[in-house]
Amino acid sequence: MAFTKNDEAVSPVIGVVLMVAVTVILAAVIASFVFGSAVTVQKTKVVAATAQIEFSGSILIVYQGGQDDAALKYITITAPNGTEAFYTSSEDGNLTPCPTDGCNTANDQLKPNVGAVMKLSPGPGWPSDQKHIVVVGIFNDGASQVILDTMV
Known about the structure:
Layout: H1 10-34, E1 48-53, E2 59-65, E3 72-78, E4 85-88, E5 95-97, E6 117-120, E7 132-139, E8 144-151
Antiparallel strand pairs: 1-2, 2-6, 3-4, 3-7, 4-5, 7-8
């Protein structure tokens, strides 16, 4: 008895498997666009601020600007006790406490000039050791982005 090797069915099976795989991948891509799972990612803004502490305990925050400086609307700052929030109320960096309903409702919010120095004086509840400062930029398109999150 002689056995013969029959390889004729291998090629059609591989072809069918590949066609099914391509069909499934195409269906997944089309479904992601149709059902909205392919969302656009918001562009990160490029602006910066730096912070340093003085011997008196005051914290100086300097707005450094950046390529998206023109799009910045104003800056909010959360002080080291975590409850005090301020916003920039003049181009030279003067700070005003946020109203109780939030900084986004204040009327006189202004973008600081590049190099503007904003000063936070020690307040009640400030920790005696390192102090956590968070600076958030609010932009003309409604986006908000943390531009400084540091310990001084």
